[in-house]
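Title: Comparing notes on inverse folding

I've been comparing how different people in this forum approach sequence design from structure. To keep things fair, I'm posting one structure and asking everyone to reply with a full sequence. Here's the target:
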């Protein structure tokens, strides 16, 4: 009984976590404002990407006769192929000599409204 309750809950949380992290990645690469804290008015493009990713996912799942098993296995194979390069990248990021060359001089965000991140969200 507990498994029957936990499985849909885990899938819903996973859907939101994957789409939110993908929206962060796309927005960061594109140079767009990306923060849930900024609200819809402060980061319109980020929230549009987030909604589009959820919409695409829903559309794929609701297509009649779509091979969901094949799609799931393909995603798992892709994750297995991308895991070793990601692990090497994370190990390189742990190296201080490598990290100092690409160090981001911008201040980090804090939860205070007076932080630079909050003012960037409200600036436009």
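Reply #1:
Here's my take.
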């Amino acid at each position: 009984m507990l498994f029957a309750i936990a499985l849909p809950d885990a899938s819903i949380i996973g859907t939101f976590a994957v789409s939110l992290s993908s929206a962060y990645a796309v927005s960061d690469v594109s140079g767009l404002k990306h923060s849930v804290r900024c609200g819809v008015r402060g980061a319109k493009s980020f929230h549009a990407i987030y909604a589009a990713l959820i919409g695409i996912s829903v559309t794929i799942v609701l297509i009649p006769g779509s091979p969901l098993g094949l799609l799931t296995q393909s995603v798992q194979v892709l994750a297995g192929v991308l895991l070793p390069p990601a692990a090497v990248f994370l190990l390189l990021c742990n190296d201080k000599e490598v990290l100092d060359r690409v160090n981001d001089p911008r201040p980090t965000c804090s939860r205070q409204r007076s932080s630079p991140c909050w003012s960037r969200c409200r600036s436009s």
